[in-house]
Amino acid sequence: MLEVILAGRDCLVAGDSCSSDETCSPRLRTLRQCVAGNGSVKLGPGARSQCANAVSALLSSPMHGCQCKRGMKKEKNCLSIYWSLHQSIIHGLNLVESYPYETVHKDYDYVRLASITADSDVGMTTVNRCLDAAKACNVDDLCQKLRTEYVSACIKPTAKSGLCNRHKCNKALRRFFDRVPADYTHELLFCPCTDTACAERRRQTIVPGCSYESVEKPNCITQTRICNADYVCRSRLAQFQYDCEPSKTSANGCNQGNYGACLLAYTGLLGSTITPNYVDNSTSSVAPWCSCSASGSRREECDRFLGYFNDNICLRNALMAFGSESDQQPTVSQSSSPGPGPGSRENRSTASPPDTIETMKNILDTIIPTQALGNELLVGQSTLSSNSLSNSASAPSLLLQAAFSLLLLLLHLLNNGH
Q1: Which residues form a coiled coil (predicted)?
Q2: pLDDT-derived band at 299, boundaries 50, 70, 90
Q3: Confidence (pTM)
């Protein structure tokens, strides 16, 4: 029974059911004429009445309330059926009911990601979530495969122009964020950074140079018009505006009260006409690649659209909450020594100067391959298997080399009066 109910909510199934019904089918054809440009003119003087009657009849059919799955096969066909009935305005009738995608309840499992990389982090007591995310993706077949695919598509120049094929790039980008579990994609895109190098790698996660950047920023009104003409982009934008709707009265700033849903809706925009990204490598501000400078009389509308990204308390809180989880997550390997934890501010400030820490890191990066695995600018397309990761991290010879190098460094520091 449950399968029958769920199937009835699928717009493809509902559309097929209506098309095969002799009563529903003509009403569906009438509705499609109503929403197709100036279709009402073709229907004659009684067009408004016919459209209203068709809508009323279909609201009591299986088509009403049907939804689609993001990234599903024939997604565009499914969405075309949904939007036939749920236009913003059909001759004065407001039929908006949130967005066409099924609700996804998602809890993120950062601990599971940490366990994936635990073998390659023996002895480490600090958590670098951006590095962990890159390693986790590299040892997961689907994540590594689809990530490699979109980066390859986004950096490969075409023979004619010498530029990338943006259409192929965005298609591969959507495929990655639609099919790879959010446990991986969200950690790659929203992991917290404390320095500009990390922030730039995070910004480059979606290869902005090909996926959405251009010499001149287009007008946001133009971009939204192009987006609304495409069923997929239009639906992703509707989902984002619904799940990330800000609220001044809500405790967490989100009208729907769900940070996870907001971030999931945000990633749904990646690879679309209005792909958002971090605006620079010094902040966590995000926005699509467009401007309101030439909006004219529609400036207020344009600013309101951009404000959904750069002045949205719900989205901002969701991003901050995701990043701040790093302060609450268990480290990969716990220290058994008493006293302040290794991640405390006191310990970090007195252990060694910042330049010494950086020097040690550079030495370890050159000796232990797994430490350098996640430091690539785009994706770190490693040819190492998960077994080789584990072996390289635990090889006694590498650990001895690391210890010896650290000893030499300490002697050098002592000789120089540190």
Answers
A1: none
A2: very high
A3: 0.69
